[in-house]
Amino acid sequence: MGHIFSILIFTILIIGEHAFADHGNHVHEKKIDGAKLEINQEKFAVFTEGLNEGQVVAVSVKGMICDFCARGIEKIFKRDPEVIKIDVDLDFGKVLIAYATKEAIDNKDIRKKIRKNGIDVVRIEIPEF
């Protein structure tokens, strides 16, 4: 029993050290508030190039602080079959999502998916392209 307990303690210490270590891009030095910045028009033009149908949603977020956070948002939206492509702009606190559908987009679903990654949604808009 003592041997198993020692292994358990050792495992917890190793996992705990790993969980709190600085892993390159997962550094929490700044928090961008997407509501305070406008959509980067050049990036938006590149993102929407070739999109003839469907719609693009621009989501302003607050609390996205590292590349790890941004990749988590990308991953969850790429699972949605209606999403054609996604661009998460860490520097501007914006998430651009291109949907194949012309049907109304479910803002609650967008909020839920982003919130699942620990990020707050400030505003959702459908910009013209």
Would you kindly provide a written description of the structure presented here, covering whatever features stand out?
With 129 residues, the chain is of the alpha+beta class. Helix content is 37%, strand content 24%. The chain is built from 4 helices and 5 strands, in the order H-E-H-E-H-E-E-H-E. Strands 1, 2, 3, 4 and 5 form a 5-stranded antiparallel β-sheet that branches. Strand 3 and strand 4 (94-99) form a beta hairpin. The longest helix has 19 residues, at 2-20. The radius of gyration is 19 Å and the shape is globular. The chain starts with a helix and ends with a strand.
Q: Pairing-aware structural class of the strands and helices?
A: alpha+beta
Number of strands: 5
Helix content: 25-40%
What ranges have pLDDT less than 50 throughout 5 or more consecutive residues? 10-28
Q: Could you tell me the radius of gyration in angstroms? A: 19 Å
Helix and strand run? HEHEHEEHE
What does the overall shape look like?
globular
- Mean residue pLDDT: 79
Report how far the terminal alpha carbons are from each other.
Answer: 66 Å
What is the strand content?
A: 15-25%
The main pleated sheet reads as: 5 strands, antiparallel
Number of helices: 4
Topology:
Blueprint lengths: L1 H19 L11 E2 L7 H8 L6 E10 L2 H12 L4 E7 L4 E6 L7 H9 L4 E6 L4
Antiparallel strand pairs: 1-2, 2-4, 2-5, 3-4
